[in-house]
């Protein structure tokens, strides 16, 4: 079976992982992709990043670059995902 998780499953995994990491900690988008598709996870990186931007716009997570929260326009390269209020 090689079905791709839908957007709601990806969002739920992002939220579950940043919540589990807790305030002051962050996760990598690849952590989410690997949890959802352990073998063929790389194609999920785009959807994970896209949905992370959506969750950030809803103030449910923050996207970090080099340890600092960045607005959507500056999201590029290596990023981390975290709960709002805690910096990792």
Structure description:
It holds the Pfam family DUF3253. InterPro entries: DUF3253, WH-like_DNA-bd_sf, WH_DNA-bd_sf. This is DUF3253 domain-containing protein. This protein is an alpha+beta fold and 88 residues long. It has one domain (7-82): Arc Repressor Mutant, subunit A (Orthogonal Bundle), CATH 1.10.10. The chain contains three helices and four strands, in the order αβααβββ. The chain has helices at 7-21, 29-36, 45-57, and strands spanning 26-27, 62-65, 68-69, 80-82. Strands 1-4-2-3 form a four-stranded antiparallel β-sheet. β2 and β3 form a beta hairpin. α1 crosses α3 and α2 (29-36) crosses α3 (45-57). The longest helix is centred in the first third of the chain and has 15 residues, at 7-21. It is globular and about 35 Å long.
